[in-house]
Amino acid sequence: MIRLTRLDGEPFVLNAELIKYVESRPDTFVTLTTGDRLVVQQTPDEVVRRAVEYQQHKLLLPAAPARSTQN
């Protein structure tokens, strides 16, 4: 998940796995695999940087320890 900001200043979190492509028109448009398009404040380079960083770190997080069911 990556944090982005809509043009109106509203922050949101996007599942980076859904990004199909990012383009500048001159606003930054993020097109998702679902066909939805989002316009964000970040530059295309920043969106790509965050998406790549997400991909690099997602497998580096340790799994949460299993909880014991014994009391």
UniProtKB/TrEMBL annotation:
<keyword id="KW-0282">Flagellum</keyword>
<keyword id="KW-0969">Cilium</keyword>
<dbReference type="InterPro" id="IPR009384">
    <property type="entry name" value="SwrD-like"/>
</dbReference>
<protein>
    <submittedName>
        <fullName>Flagellar protein (FlbD)</fullName>
    </submittedName>
</protein>
<keyword id="KW-0966">Cell projection</keyword>
<dbReference type="Pfam" id="PF06289">
    <property type="entry name" value="FlbD"/>
</dbReference>
